[in-house]
Structure formats: C-alpha cells, structure tokens
User: Which sequence fits this backbone?
C-alpha cells in the first residue's frame, strides 16, 4: 500500500497516473449511475469485454461458442480513425494550436480519396497510393488554411477550424453527389484496387469490416513520433508551443511553423477520413451530420497527453467505449452510459491540476 | 530573544540533489535577515518551504514560537508570510491593479469587482512606500523593474508581517535599490520582519542585521553583519577568496563592428522609445549602454537583435545594413544575445538543459544532420558547457530548465551565447542574479572575448558593473544617447547626473 501511494504521488508518474485515475473515476461514475437506475453495473463491463475482446461471458459454460472474432475486428475499425484524429489534435497542440478542425479535415480527406478512386483510371500499383495521398493531402490543405490565416493575420485557429468543419460537411456532400454514378446517399463503390479491403482480414475476423488501414495507422504513429522526437522540425514545433518568445529569439519562424504544424495535423485527419472511406466502407457517403471523429480526437489527445503513444492508448480506450455501445444496447443498458463515461473521463483529465493538488496533499499528509 | 521564524534542521531533496541539507534559520522580530549563498545553494528552496510551496522531508518550522505545518501558500498567508519571488508570478495580460488584488478582490453589489476602490488602495500603498506604478497598465507592457514593484505591492496589500524578498534588487537601478532599502527599513520599523536574499554584499552590509550563509545546500553559519566584512561573507559562501575588481588591460579597439544611424524604435505601447539614436561599437571593446530602466535600452537591444521591428534608421553590422534581416540571419552573421528577460526569451523552461543549450545551434552540424537531431552531440555539447561554466543542477544535461535555480539558468544562457564566440555579443544584464564567484568568472569570460577581438555591447543597470567592466559608457536617456564617456575617466556621480538627463558629461 505504501509503495502504491508512493508511486501514484510521485510527480514523475503523473503522466499516466492522472489518466488512470480519470478512467477509474469515469467507470466509477458510470457504474453508480447504473446502480441508481436499477441496473446491474457488471453488465457494463461484460459489454465492454465483449465489444473489445469478443468474449461473451454469459455464454461461458453454456456450450455455445464464447469467442467471436468479429467484435475484435470491429473494435479496431472504431479505434483506427480516432487514433488518427487524436494524433492530429495532439500534433497541433504541440505547437500550441488547438485543432478543432479534425472533423472537417477528415471529411475532405474522405471525399478526396473517394473522388480519386472513382474518377482516376490508373494501373493497380499506383492507384491505391494515389488515392491515399489524395485524401491525406486534402486534409493537409484543409488544415493549412487556418494555419496560414493564423500566421499571416493572427486569426484564431479555433474560429476558422469550426467554420471550416461546416464548410467541409456541406461541400463534400454536394460534390460527392456530383461524382459519376453517385445517388443521393452514396457514391458508387470504389474499384477493388483502390480500397484497403482484405478478404483475408475479413475472413480471419468472422466477416468484420477490418481492413489494411491499420498499417497506415501504425505508419502515422511512427511518423508523429519521429517528427516530434527526432527532427529539428519537431524541436522547433515544441519550442514554439512551449515558448513562442524564446522560439523567436532563437531565430525560428514561429508563424511558418504554426502553419506547417496545422497542415501536418490536417494530414493525419485526412488520412483518418481516407481510412474510413476506402477501408471501412469502400464508397463515399453523404452525411446528414458530423460523426464526431474530430471531437473524439480531442478527447484522445487530451487523455494521451499529446504524445504518439498516448494517442494510441486514448484511441483504444475511446474505441472500446464506442465498440461496446451496440453490445450494451442489446444487453439492455442504455448506450448513453458509454457517452457519460467518456465525458467523465475527459472532465477529470481536464481537471488534472485539481487531481495533482489532491495527490500532493496525500503525499504531504503521509 | 524572540524569534518570529524558526526553521530547524530543514532537509529538502529534489531528484539528484539535496537542495537543503539540515539547514537552520532563525529570524528575530523586527530585523532584516539576509540569506546568502552561491547559485543553487538552496536559498529559494528554503524560502519556498517557508512559504508552503514545498514540503520539507525533515525539520520543523516555528512561527512566533509555535510549531506550524505550512502545507500551501494560503496557510503561509494566514501566518502573515508574504513572498516576492525571484521570478515574478504575475498574470501578463492583467493590469497592475488586477494582479495585486488577485484572490482578494474588493466587490460591489452582485459580486462585481470594485476596481476603482482597489486601484485607490493600491495607489495609497504605492504612494506610502514610494513604489511607483501605473495601476492601469498591463503587466506585459511595463518594465521588469516596475513588475518587481507590483510584486512588492502585492505582498503589502495582503498585510504580510513576515516578508520574504527573493533577490528583489537584481532588477532595480541603484536609485531604486536605495529606495527599496529605505522601504525595508521603514517596514521593520513598523514591526515587520524581513528575509532578504541577495547576492549583493553591499546591500547586506547596508540594511541587514544578521546574515545566514548556505553552501551547496548546507548551513555554514549565521553572523552579525555589523561585526563582519563583505570579504569575510564572500569567503564564507564561496569557500575561497573572491576578487571584486575586474582584472583587465586597457582595450585596443579596432574596426567598427556595429554602427547605428538615426535609429527609431517604438515600444509596445506605440510610443517612440528610441529616438534618432547613433552609436558605434568597435571590435575589441566593451561598450556599455547605461541608463535608468525604461529609457529605451531594452527596445534598442530588441531592435538590434531583430526581436522588434524598427521604425527607421540603419543598423550596420560590419558595414552591412541588417535592420531588416531575420533574427536567424543576424545570428548567423555573428550576433550573440544574452537577453534581459531570461524566462521570456532566454530559455524554453519546459525543455531540458541540453535542449536549451542547443537553442541557437540545433540546426547546424554537429547537433543535427539533415534535419535530424543528434542526441549524443546534444549531450556532449551540453556536458562540456556545464563543466566549463560550472552550471549546477540536480541531473545535469537532462534536468528540466524550469527546476534549475535562477542563477544557474542565467549561467546556462551565458554559456550558450559566449561559447559561440560571436563577433558581436549583446549582453543585457548578464550577471543579474549571479553570485559573486560566478560574476567574477563571467566578467573574466567577457573580457577574454573582448581581448580576442570581439565587440561587446553591454547593457547593465548595475553601477559597479558598468564602471568595472566597460571601456566606454554610452548613457541613454529617454531614447537618446546623452553622452559617451571613458569608463576610467568618470564616476558614479557623473553617470548618475547623465542618466537623469543632464548632458554635461558629454565627452566626444
Ligand atoms: N522544483 C525543483 N525540482 C528539481 N530540482 C530543483 C527544484 N527547485 C530547485 N531545485 C534544485 O535545487 C537546488 C537549489 O535551488 P535553489 O533555487 O534553491 O537555489 P538558490 O540558492 O535560490 O540559487 P540562485 O541564487 O541561483 O537563485 C538547485 O540545484 C536546483 O537545481
Ligand atoms: Mg534562487
């Protein structure tokens, strides 16, 4: 016990102790609410286990198959895009910028990849890379616009990105319908060579929608980490984020770095959109409203402390809550509980200074 | 004897270092008690323990003879303890008044802040003690000196009885220091007790009753100031004899490195801060721009280094106009800059020491190759500088800059800039916050740079430094150079008059 308290009160461990406490409290609050509404909180956890690991605890001992790989596959389908939007928000944040525009960057990424896949007639080997690049680049451009407006005219990026989210939603819906063969709700399916679909992965996961996109996600995580930790560019971005005055003193181009950082952040989101469009679905969709990948990205980055690995962890966490929602509903507890849990976690992470003070008190009292 | 504060056998550890190791400090009621020690000796830490910012691992604290547990600054406030920190803790986009009343705002109906009432009270205190501030200016727009006064007012506004001053005079002009000393005497006369941290022995002899000396976290002793000489105190703290004179031969200036012609620069409030200024700095000399804080010297330096846009005029560096070059270009052409505000410009506090050491050269080999940082090179670069400049910290190169003592942060910046041996080194208040031993070393290094043919533009508010270190002194008053004098042919009096705007001293 004493060791445990020493561990959690040690400031060096705050990086992951605080998210852990927040997650614990999130589930705690969720359970309390379930108890208050007369539900069994155990169901919450069995739903998550089923949603993530595909293990149906209620079937244990019943003789029926306990494990269903489809859930695992679908879990990754949920987690992949929000890991990417998490990286997007985290990257901008390292330069001191708040990218609320991940949603819009994702949408233009989706659209551009679909547009490229539907219209370009390229040989197999180049088609897929071109499609992926189009989506990523479109996201980058959508991120660069608020970046350059901030750099040149000091317009706040939050305002511009929010506005551009709506622009992206309506613009992409409109143009998607203009693509050859589109109807009112979706585009025609992309040619097989332009998608990330894999019969192998589908078969392996009992016909889930799992696709090759996870390789792109891993590459993106690596690129994030490499830029931030290894390059002089990442060093500059961090310096600008921590102390723009000192960065200017050291001759760094603070404005240019801000614009570039937003463009790279946008690229991550654009890739998220690409992965959804050409991986999960294989066609472009006309959307009635936002799907909130961007906002989940903010939560992911927040919980993950704006690092590459943290975003992976945050993405897997929030992905598990999304994946558990359908299971929860089918076992009779409201899916909103999952949303309450995510919000509570975000709330407690955002209150980390308070948690730090409490930890300090515990340390002092000892 | 009655003690207001007794800190007994205090031990406080940080990763890699015992900042306080069995330290005892006893402050009598109504006295000024000086706390002396080298950079990193643990003075600020000890006072932070008293102020409730840190909890000591061992030791007891008694206030008025009663043992207390000061778990946070609010508890300290309740015990009547106030502190002016070494690095100010002000909200930059708040006004002076807002900062002073923060947490104790007087309110009108419906909880609205009564800012006029607050401003009035602030003005009352400020007039009573002669702490000149403009209650409605924003912190980011006022000079460091005035920010200091705001900090002092903040403490007085809270009616503190035990006042901790952590290096309050480091940023003040001689005149302001005299005033502050007067204020402190006034305060103890009213029954308040003061702990004064300072590196300036003269100030200790001037006002302090007792002086407690720390060295490398350990308690060395407490002496009665009236019975001890400055030399003895210096030796107690450093452990060796210290020379107060700068050891240098007359300068042999050669070509003009920096030539400023009709320079005009506006300050952040859009007023002309540098007016039609002309100045030359030659290779092989130390030219000091001296003046009372706020007379345009900060803007002048920001203009030369490229941190501020100039209005008009020329800045010729080796004959080339660099007035519109980027900061990076100026650095590459050979300008080094020890900035006045070390936390705003000099350091990225959330970076490690080695990352800070690389701030001006990270983009060049060997610290990086093709845009990829070279961690071993970074480490080696930083280790060498730490060794050479005796920069003390808990964990060496990987220490976070934020956790370092103020003086050691300053040494890190100086090390970084001096090591590059730039053709023109601009040193703004280079020895602010350094202990006497470190000052001796830095002065030697600056003279060595001079002797190797570099041009040095010094900006200092410290009369002794101005007179001892410079070869020529250019006095600035309201944005204009009112006269340039030879350092060996002038004295404090003449300089003082010139700084107040008299042109009498004009020599060439
Ligand atoms: N928060 C912290 N975390 C880790 N180390 C710290 C922290 N605060 C201080 N230290 C270390 O403790 C030592 C004492 O620091 P302190 O600030 O008390 O020195 P100081 O005597 O005030 O020096 P100076 O004259 O330079 O201000 C230093 O080596 C410093 O690096
Ligand atoms: Mg200190």
Assistant:
């Amino acid at each position: 016990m004493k060791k445990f308290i020493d561990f959690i009160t040690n400031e060096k461990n705050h990086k992951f102790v605080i998210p852990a406490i927040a997650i614990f409290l999130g589930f705690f609050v969720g359970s309390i609410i379930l108890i208050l509404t007369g539900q069994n909180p155990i169901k919450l956890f069995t739903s998550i286990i089923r949603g993530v690991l595909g293990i149906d605890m209620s079937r244990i001992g019943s003789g029926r198959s306990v494990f269903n790989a489809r859930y695992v596959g679908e879990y990754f389908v949920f987690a992949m895009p929000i890991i990417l939007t998490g990286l997007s928000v985290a990257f901008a944040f390292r330069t001191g910028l708040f990218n609320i525009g991940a949603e819009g960057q994702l949408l233009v990424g989706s659209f551009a990849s679909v547009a490229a896949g539907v219209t370009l007639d390229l040989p197999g080997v180049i088609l897929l890379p071109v499609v992926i690049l189009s989506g990523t680049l479109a996201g980058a451009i959508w991120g660069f616009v608020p970046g350059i407006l901030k750099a040149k005219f000091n317009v706040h990026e939050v305002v511009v990105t929010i506005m551009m989210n709506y622009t992206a939603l309506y613009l992409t819906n409109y143009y998607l319908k203009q693509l050859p063969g589109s109807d009112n709700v979706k585009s025609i399916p992309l040619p097989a060579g332009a998608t990330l679909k894999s019969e192998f992965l589908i078969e392996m996961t009992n016909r889930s929608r799992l696709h090759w996109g996870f390789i792109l996600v891993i590459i993106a995580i690596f690129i994030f980490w490499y830029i931030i930790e290894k390059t002089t560019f990442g060093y500059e971005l961090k310096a600008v984020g921590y102390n723009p005055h000192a960065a200017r003193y050291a001759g760094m181009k603070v404005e240019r770095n801000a614009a570039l950082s937003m463009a790279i952040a946008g690229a991550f989101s654009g890739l998220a959109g690409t992965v959804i469009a050409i991986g999960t679905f294989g066609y472009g969709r006309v959307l009635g409203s936002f799907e909130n990948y961007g906002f989940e990205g903010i939560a992911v980055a927040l919980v993950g402390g704006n690092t590459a690995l943290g975003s992976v962890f945050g993405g897997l966490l929030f992905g598990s809550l999304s994946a558990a929602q359908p299971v929860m509903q089918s076992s009779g507890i409201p899916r909103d509980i999952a949303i309450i849990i995510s919000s509570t976690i975000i709330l407690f992470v955002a209150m980390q200074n308070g948690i730090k003070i409490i930890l300090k008190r515990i340390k002092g009292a000892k | 004897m009655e003690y207001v504060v007794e800190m007994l056998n205090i031990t406080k550890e940080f990763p890699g270092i015992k900042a306080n190791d069995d330290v005892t400090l006893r402050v009598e009621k109504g006295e000024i008690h000086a706390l002396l020690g080298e950079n990193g000796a643990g003075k600020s830490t000890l006072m932070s323990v008293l102020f409730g910012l840190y909890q000591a691992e061992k030791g007891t604290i008694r206030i008025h003879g009663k043992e207390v547990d000061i778990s946070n600054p609010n508890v300290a406030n309740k015990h009547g303890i106030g502190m002016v920190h070494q690095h100010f803790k002000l909200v930059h986009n708040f006004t002076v008044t807002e900062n002073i009343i923060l947490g104790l705002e007087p309110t009108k109906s419906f909880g609205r802040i009564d800012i006029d009432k607050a401003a009035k009270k602030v003005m009352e205190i400020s007039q009573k003690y002669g702490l000149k501030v403009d209650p409605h200016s924003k912190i980011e727009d006022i000079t460091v000196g005035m920010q200091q006064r705001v900090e002092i007012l903040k403490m007085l506004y809270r009616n503190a009885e035990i006042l901790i001053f952590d290096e309050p005079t480091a940023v003040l002009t001689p005149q302001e220091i005299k005033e502050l000393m007067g204020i402190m005497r006034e305060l103890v006369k009213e029954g308040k007790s003061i702990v004064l941290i300072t590196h300036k022995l003269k100030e200790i002899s001037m006002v302090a009753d007792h002086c407690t000396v720390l060295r490398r976290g350990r308690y060395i002793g407490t002496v009665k100031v009236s019975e001890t000489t400055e030399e003895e105190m210096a030796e107690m703290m450093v452990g060796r004899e210290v020379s107060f004179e700068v050891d240098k031969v007359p300068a042999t200036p050669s070509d003009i490195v920096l030539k400023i012609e009709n320079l005009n620069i506006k300050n952040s409030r859009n007023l002309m801060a540098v007016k039609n200024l002309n100045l030359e700095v030659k290779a092989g000399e130390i030219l000091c721009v001296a003046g009372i804080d706020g007379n345009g010297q900060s803007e002048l330096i920001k203009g030369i280094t490229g941190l501020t846009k100039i209005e008009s005029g020329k800045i010729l560096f080796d004959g080339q106009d660099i007035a519109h070059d980027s900061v990076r270009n100026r650095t590459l052409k050979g300008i080094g800059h020890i900035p006045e505000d070390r936390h705003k410009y000099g350091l990225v506090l959330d970076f490690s020491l080695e990352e800070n050491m690389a701030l001006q050269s990270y983009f060049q080999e060997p610290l990086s190759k093709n845009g990829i940082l070279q961690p071993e090179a970074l480490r080696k670069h930083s280790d060498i500088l730490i060794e050479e400049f005796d920069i003390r910290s808990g964990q060496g190169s990987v220490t976070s800059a934020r956790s370092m003592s103020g003086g050691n942060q300053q040494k890190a910046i100086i090390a970084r800039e001096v090591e590059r041996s730039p053709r023109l080194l601009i040193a703004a208040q280079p020895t602010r916050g350094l202990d006497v031993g470190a000052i001796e070393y830095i002065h030697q290094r600056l003279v060595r740079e001079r002797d190797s043919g570099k041009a040095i533009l010094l900006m200092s508010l410290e009369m002794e430094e101005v007179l001892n270190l410079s070869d020529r002194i250019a006095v600035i008053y309201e944005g204009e150079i009112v006269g340039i004098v030879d350092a060996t042919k002038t004295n404090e009096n003449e300089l003082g008059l010139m700084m107040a705007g008299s042109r009498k001293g004009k020599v060439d």
Notes: Chain A is about 75% helix and 0% strand. The interface with chain B takes residues 12, 230-233, 235, 238-239, 242-243, 245-253, 361, 363-364 of chain A (CB under 8 Å). The CA atoms of residues 58 and 66 of chain A lie 8 Å apart. The radius of gyration of chain A is 22 Å.
